[in-house]
Amino acid sequence: xxxxxxxxxxxxxxxxxxxxxxxxxxxxxxxxxxxxxxxxxxxxxxxxxxxxxxxxxxxxxxxxxxxxxxxxxxxxxxxxxxxxxxxxxxxxxxxxxxxxxxxxxxxxxxxxxxxxxxxxxxxxxxxxxxxxxxxxxxxxxxxxxxxxxxxxxxxxxxxxxxxxxxxxxxxxxxxxxxxxxxxxxxxxxxxxxxxxxxxxxxxxxxxxxxxxxxxxxxxxxxxxxx
Length: 226
Prior knowledge:
Blueprint: H1 10-19, H2 32-40, E1 49-52, H3 58-65, E2 70-74, H4 77-86, E3 94-96, E4 108-114, H5 123-136, E5 137-148, E6 155-156, E7 165-169, E8 176-180, E9 185-186, H6 189-199, E10 202-211, E11 215-224
Parallel strand pairs: 1-2, 1-4, 2-3, 4-5
Antiparallel strand pairs: 5-11, 6-9, 7-8, 10-11
């Protein structure tokens, strides 16, 4: 008997279901804050970069086209296969990775994760997410973490409902789809800052940003190695 899949892997089903219809779930517009943080902290193109949760390649395609030294990862095989098909010349820059369970034998100067943390509901999984970042940052490395929320409200989904089919309207096409439900936990800034401190990372800055059109209100934090 197969072991049940972790709730946070439900996006693999969703990507498969959407891609089978020759659609993409998210927009292809890159997240402006990634470039803004790279510029603000003068992160060079030759710096080693890691993306956690590249999804359908919105930010990875942009940075790789600009010549950045990026390894883009996602827990979803469907997402990584999609990225490799869409950007075959950079196919070696994409790989499947579960940051809750896996590790890499490499340190990075810049790590970023856009709209990943909110998919981790359980405290232990969130701790492992921050641990992964801490263990994979170089001595002077920095990380950008963006997660859904306005910094004030808190909510959490029931992880037992992950994978169950739900009716959703595809924003770009208007088509009605039956796709896998996913998980979501939104925390306030106090909780987020506490998670960062408990992980041994140092908070550099935090605030609210907008990642249009997918995440119009998004919390961001920049952290560094202790």
